[in-house]
Structures are given as C-alpha cells and as structure tokens.
Amino acid sequence: MNQPMTGGGDTELGVQKPLHDGVITEVAGGVTAPKGFRATGVHCGIKAVKKDLALIFSDAPAIGSAVLTTNKVQAAPILVVKEQLAHSRAFRAIVVNSGNANACTGNRGMHDAWETVEATASTLGVGRGEVLPSSTGVIGEYLPLKALLSGIPLAAEQLSAEGGRAAAEAIMTTDTFAKECAVTFFLDGVRVTVGGMAKGSGMIAPNMATMLSFITTDAAVEPDVLHHALLRSTQRSFNRITVDGDMSTNDMVVVLANGRSGAPPVRTNSGKAYNDFSSALERVMVKLAKMIARDGEGATKFLEIEVTGARDEKEALTAARSVANSNLVKTAMHGGDANWGRVLAAVGYSGIDFDPSQVEISFGNVPILGRNYALGFSEEAAREVLQRPEIRITINLNRGEGEAMCWTCDLSKEYVTINAHYRT
Amino acid sequence: MNQPMTGGGDTELGVQKPLHDGVITEVAGGVTAPKGFRATGVHCGIKAVKKDLALIFSDAPAIGSAVLTTNKVQAAPILVVKEQLAHSRAFRAIVVNSGNANACTGNRGMHDAWETVEATASTLGVGRGEVLPSSTGVIGEYLPLKALLSGIPLAAEQLSAEGGRAAAEAIMTTDTFAKECAVTFFLDGVRVTVGGMAKGSGMIAPNMATMLSFITTDAAVEPDVLHHALLRSTQRSFNRITVDGDMSTNDMVVVLANGRSGAPPVRTNSGKAYNDFSSALERVMVKLAKMIARDGEGATKFLEIEVTGARDEKEALTAARSVANSNLVKTAMHGGDANWGRVLAAVGYSGIDFDPSQVEISFGNVPILGRNYALGFSEEAAREVLQRPEIRITINLNRGEGEAMCWTCDLSKEYVTINAHYRT
C-alpha cells in the first residue's frame, strides 16, 4: 500500500484487489453462458433498423434480485420491477426494450409497462408475476407499444442458448460496442457459471446512472444471500464508474439465479461458498462496469482514478469520485495535459479533510507531484503516458491505509455532439 | 409566485427579486467609480503580450472584508489575505496578477506572495499590513516573481481615477470580455457609489470557483456590517453561478470601503441605511456574477434556472443547482433540444424530496411539461425559444412557496478545446 509512485502504469489497469481469491476463469457466452438460460435480441420497430428488444428466459424458476435507481424520478419499469420483487422472488424472464425509455410518462407509462409484462408472460406461458421489464432510450416520450408487443412473439421464437450476444446488442443506445462477459468457478467440485450484459453510456453517476445490467447464474442461491452479494458487488463495480455525473431514471441491475448447475445452494452471507460466488459475481460486474466507462459517450481514453493513503475506504472513494467527476480533469486527460493542479483541486473540494502539502500524485508510472509540492517531473515522460488510451491517476493522501479506485473516461467534443442533439 | 407557466420568457432574464428596493442607478467606471479609488492594469511579462498585473489603490485607509475559497487546497495569496485580515481591517491596496496562479507551490509560493505584498507596500508608501494580494491563472507553477515585481512601480505610476477598466482587463484569463460595473444611490441625501470588477470563467462552482472579484465603495461601513453585507450578497450572486462544477484554489471576493463619499457610516446590520447599501452591493455582485456565467468557457448561451414552488429557498436552490450543473442539460441547451426529461432527472437526483408527477417545466414562456406528465407542447415554439442566446428554464415543484434562481451557460465543444490544452 501507499506506494503509488512505484505502482505500475504499465501493468493492467483496473485490477481491484478482490475481497476473496478463488480460481475464476473467463468464458464466452454472456447471459447465456450459465446452464438453463436462453436469450435473444430482435428488431421490433422502435429504432429505425437496429435491434431494440432483448429477451432473457430461464428454463426453471430463478431467484431474482435487483438494485434500482435512487433518482426520485423513477421510470415505470422500475416501479413495476419493485412491485414484482415485493410479491415474488422467482422469475422466468426479463424483457428489455431500447430506443425509448418509458420514463416520465405517468399512468400511460405504467399501463405500457404492465402490458409488456403480460404479453411476455402469455407468449412464454409463464406467470404474470414471473416477468421483469426494463426500458432505455429517450425519456419523456410514450413507448411505441404496438411495435414492442409485435416483437415479443418474434423474440420468444428466437430464444437460444447462443443468444447472449444478440441480447447484449439489443439493449444498446449510444453504446459503441455490446458489453457482455461470463466466468466459471467450482463450488464443491461442480462447475458454476455467472454471465452478464450491460449498457451505458452517458451519465453513469453518482450511482449507476443510465445503466442497465442483467446478470444470470446457474448457481443456487438463497434470496437474501443473492441480494447481499448483489449489493456488495454493485458497490464495488457499477457504483465506481462515472461518465458525466448525471443519474438516470431507469437504472437497474438485475440478477437471476436458476440453480441449474446442480451445485449445492449458497445459504449464508459468509463462508467459502459465498465468497467464491460473490467473487465471481463481482468479477463479472467489474468487467462490465469498466466496459461502460471505456465506452462513455465520446470517450477516447479510459481513466482509472486510484486514491491511496486515505483514512479509510470511504474517504478514498469520496476523493476518487470527485476527481473522476471533474470536467477539468477529464478535458485535461483528453488533451494529454499533465495538469496535476486540477487533480489536487478536485480532491480539495471533495469535502474530505487532508493536508495538501502531503499529497503525492502520479500519472501512470510517472511521479508528477511529491510531498511539499515537489515538482521536477519530466513533461516528456508525462506526455508519453498521457498519449495512451488507458491512464491511471494515483493520488496518495499519505494519511492512512484506506484506498479505493474508480473508473471514468475523458471528456471530448464528441460528448457534446452526441448530447446536444440526442432527441433529434 | 408559483406561476412559472405565465412567467415571461420575453422579459429580461436574471431579475432576482431584490431583498429591498431603493433607487439604484448604474454608472460607468468600475472599481474607480467610487470616490478616492485609483486603479490600473499593466503588462509586466507573465503573459506574452496582454495585461497581467492589476493594482487598486485607495487614497484613504479602507475597511476591508473578504470571502475566500472553501477548497481545502488554498493558494498562497488566500493564506496571506487571511493573515492580513486577522491583523487589520484597514487597507490601502489590492495587487493582482493573472497568467500564473501561485497555487500549490508550498513555501516558495508563500514567500512569493509576501514579496509581492512588501514590494507593493514600499512602492506605494503604505504599510505591509495594508496590501491584499491575489493571483489567477495556471496553478502548480512558480510565479515569475521578477517579472511581477518589475511591474509594480509601473502600475503605481499609472494609477488613475479612470483606471478601472484597465484593471478589469488585467485580471482576465480565459475571459472573453472584461467584467466591471458600478452603481450609485443616496444615503441621507449623499451620493454613494459601489463599483466592482471580476474574472471567470471555467469552474465557478459549487461555490464561487476560479473566480476573483474586487469591490470598492466610498460608503463608510463598520467592519462587521461590511462583512455581513458581503456574505449575504455573495450567497445571492457568486454562489448562484456555475460553469462546470469545479471549485478552484484561489477564489476570493474582496470589498474595500473608504468612506470618501462623506455619507454617514452604516453602523448596523439592519435599517434603511444597511438595506440601501447592501442592495447596491448585491446589485453590483449579481451583475458581475451573471457576466461570469455568460462568459463561461466556450459558452454560447446564458442559462437561468429558476425553481419555484419549493418547500423553502434552500430546497429550491438545491434543485436549481443540480439542473445548472448537469452536463446533459447544458449540452441539450447548446443543441437547442427541448429535452425536459434531463431537467426533471437532474431535479430527481438533487437529493430533495418531491413528487415528480406534480412538476411543471417551461422553457422561456413555452410550457413544456404540465402536472401528471401532461405534454403536448409545440416543438416549434420550444425550438424558437431555445435558439435564443438567453434561456430561462423554470421548474415549479408545486409543493410550497420557496424559490431560487441560479445562472450558468451551455456546454459546447469549445469548452473542451479550451480545457484540453489549458497549460500548453
């Protein structure tokens, strides 16, 4: 710890120290990597040409849990998911449309969300209470419900155990690439898989904003334990990324666990089985979170902000978030300008208490600021680091052992272009 | 109150209801409009060509007061001003350099700031304790002290009662125009003047960031009363603007009151004399604050965010600030996109408690969102309003009588260009 000056700018970025180590292996397949899940993505006519309707189906009832936006303005699907979760913990399907977010649409929005749920349930032959809806895209416009409903039978027909990729494509909005990943590990000798998909890409802060993620696993997990693991992993993944500080009305992370691996159930919030499962879940969610940061609107560079030497993890995270949210830091990184003063200023207004003269800052492996404002770094070395597509900024507060990391992207003209005319 | 839908988008923007009414008249002259003040701006060699050193001089000892940055990282001049104010309340001069901020420079920065104070004092023949220093520009680089010191005798020679404009020019950094104004009013039949100048233009939030303002008045005001009026006016002016949410290490607002008008002293924090004086002070500071918002880096539009119908003023201000700081709102306004959903979402994550279905939003005089998410506005009318260089966004929460206003600008590609290569 506390050695950011020797921390490797050359090593892989984004390797957060895992809470628990286990043998976790990446595999292909996204949400359809775990046993007993099928999925697809189709074009139903909300967008002009691209896929705009994703469906995930579990062959067996799956325990479900979700983390939802904390925005006071909550989209209809968020309210419906809340209600579904209040009445049941076993689910069969997730239906997601992109292109139009069904948010801020009052009673009609609620009606449309329930219609989507009912149509999906009857098409798939499952209960109305077993379907979770989600929606992303422009907010404030009514859902083209007819188009959406017409796509459901089509999607149901095309469900396949290889459909994870198509589903990941169908939830994209301004994303430039589909985001999915999956990992396996062994529980009592039985192979268990966790898969996931996500979409960004503007906003994404303060807490997992304009962000959807759907996670599947063939592990068997008790409802409360699943929720515990989901909350912890969300804190260490989606809540560590920021693109522009805005937070949306539709964000959700949903996990379904169908038990089809045949591994023994995870029954408690501690112990080896829990640790192995939650580490795998965290690995998938961190990987998706970093993909979102990397694909922030207009992003040309991935930024990792690491704060060490804080009083505790909370303080480290507060400082890291303040730097990650600074437009001035993000534009400087865009321009490859080693403007450490903006980094220090952003820590300064983060609200934490610290002694500025004790701070050390490095960009990649280049020490930029030493204690007592010691400068003397090589502008050339800094420039070299700042030309790279991935930049780690390390800030050592030199006052404790707390550390935290968060991820963001640079702020480019392209961000402005994308967001100046989003609706039109 | 509570009638934003009929509020005039056609009337002048930024007319905040004054706490007290009095006959206040605008006059020319900036900081040299009040009696007994002289000023100038010269080029001393910190910048390549433009003026980079401003000097304000009072012919008589003036009561001084200041509001300083709350950033934990405080520039050397901030620390020196604090020390000067702790030992005295009577001052003769303010010396400000632009082009290099003397921040984050440790002991050498402190030394340079005191050297500047001493050189100014000895050149002007006043006490070391009677000079207030200030500094703006790139942070983290040592002050070119030799250049700065060489400019002081030059500035002292050129001090003039018509020098307010030159001083305002000499404190500019990325500002595109010099910011100054002055007003007069009568105290017991005697004409009193308040003048001021300011510089922006990035950052400027959460609290008066990267922002300098110097106010002069020939009123006679007791030290505590002056400070009371300054604090109140700052809350209602510079703390109501935001450009990009960042807060700098060097911000300060200083006021000097030299009593040369001959009007009777303002001795208490209430009563007609106080109200008249503080209204004039507020008028100058609000005008300067709005100039700063208008001149935000890369700004093409001035935005006024007005929240009405809040539980109280604090709640209204929280909501207004959240909207004003939203990159997504600011880019939508840049593009002329009537994206009211982003406005509502920004209120949603501001942290206040409210019922989204009761919110009304208008852009200028065009109602965009009614209660219960009633839409049906004319995109054409909205587009017309959004093409204007000044846009008012009014948000009625419909839950009380509290209201507040704040000011900002749109977010353009030019902002990115300016800030991607600021140091180079």
Note down, in words, how this protein is organized.
Two copies of one chain form a homodimer. Chain A is α+β, with helices and mostly antiparallel strands. Chain A has two domains: 25-294, L-amino peptidase D-ALA esterase/amidase, CATH 3.60.70; 298-420, ArgJ beta chain, C-terminal domain (Ubiquitin-like (UB roll)), CATH 3.10.20.340. Helix content of chain A is 32%, strand content 25%. Chain A has eleven helices and 14 strands. Chain A has helices spanning 76-87, 106-124, 145-158, 164-170, 223-235, 272-294, 313-324, 327-335, 340-348, 379-386, 413-420; strands spanning 25-27, 37-42, 53-68, 90-100, 131-138, 179-187, 190-199, 212-217, 252-257, 302-310, 360-363, 366-369, 390-396, 402-409. In chain A, strands 1, 2, 3, 4, 5, 6, 7, 8 and 9 form a nine-stranded mixed β-sheet that branches. In chain A, strand 6 (179-187) and strand 7 form a beta hairpin. In chain A, helix 1 packs across helix 2, helix 2 packs parallel to helix 3 and helix 5 (223-235) packs across helix 6 (272-294). The N and C termini of chain A lie far apart (49 Å). Mean pLDDT of chain A is 87; it is low at 1-12 and 203-209. At the A-B interface, helix 2, helix 8, helix 9 and helix 11 of A face helix 2, helix 8, helix 9 and helix 11 of B.
Task: Using the CA coordinates, give the radius of gyration of chain A.
Answer: 22 Å
- Helix content estimate of chain A: 25-40%
Largest interface: A-B, 66 and 66 residues
What's the level 1 CATH class of the largest domain in chain A?
Alpha Beta
Any guess at the CATH architecture of the largest domain in chain A?
A: 4-Layer Sandwich
CATH H-level name of the largest domain in chain A... which superfamily? L-amino peptidase D-ALA esterase/amidase
Quickly count the helices of chain A.
11
The tally of strands of chain A reads 14
User: Can you tell me the overall shape of chain A?
Assistant: globular
Largest sheet of chain A: 9 strands, mixed
Quickly count the domains of chain A: 2
- Listing every helix as H and every strand as E from the N terminus to the C terminus, the arrangement of chain A reads EEEHEHEHHEEEHEHEHHHEEHEEH
